[in-house]
Amino acid sequence: EAGVAQSPRYKIIEKRQSVAFWCNPISGHATLYWYQQILGQGPKLLIQFQNNGVVDDSQLPKDRFSAERLKGVDSTLKIQPAKLEDSAVYLCASRRSSSYEQYFGPGTRLTVT
Amino acid sequence: AQRVTQPEKLLSVFKGAPVELKCNYSYSGSPELFWYVQYSRQRLQLLLRHISRESIKGFTADLNKGETSFHLKKPFAQEEDSAMYYCALSGAPGTYKYIFGTGTRLKVLA
What we know:
The complex is a heterodimer of chains A (113) and B (110). Chain A is built from no helices and eleven strands. Chain A has strands at residues 5-7, 10-13, 19-24, 31-37, 44-50, 53-56, 65-68, 75-79, 88-95, 103-104, 108-112. The model of chain A has no long low-confidence stretch (mean pLDDT 95). Chain B has a single domain (3-109), classed as Immunoglobulin-like. Chain B has strands at residues 3-5, 10-14, 19-21, 24-26, 32-38, 45-49, 60-61, 72-74, 83-90, 98-100, 104-109.
């Protein structure tokens, strides 16, 4: 089966600009996660979707971050406006409802200058 | 508060030597614990889940609730084991919302 796809793989923007990341999960995976991984740290969960509904967004900085998962498949994570501290790798993961295993995408490396 | 601690950022061992990657956790209930691994230029992938008690690629990990630890062990390290290892905790049953540790980079020297 095809893995989790993410695009773009790399993005460089200036602070105060906007950016969007896209994720296509594995077909049939109802649960989708977005993580932020800052250099030297482990991934931190930003938001979890079950189909097209939000299960947990308690760690999403909602003043600047937003995410959606229309039709319960692809998802988009947006940052507007970006800050220097948003420089990180943004990971998308998906999971089948009957399983505990998360499958991760390759990530998008964001650099904010 | 829920927390996962991996005290070593880097662990270097010689090929054939035993390996132990440490993981301690803080959680008030009964957690599920996992080890994920990221090889160079590859995606993060599941290595072990404590409930399954399997041995994957020669690695094992035992949950010690008394010491709140879930250390990853392998009796004889191989060069291909060189990678970044993350310990993860899932608290609320069935949600599989992971809290990751900061990771340990394992380097196996020839």
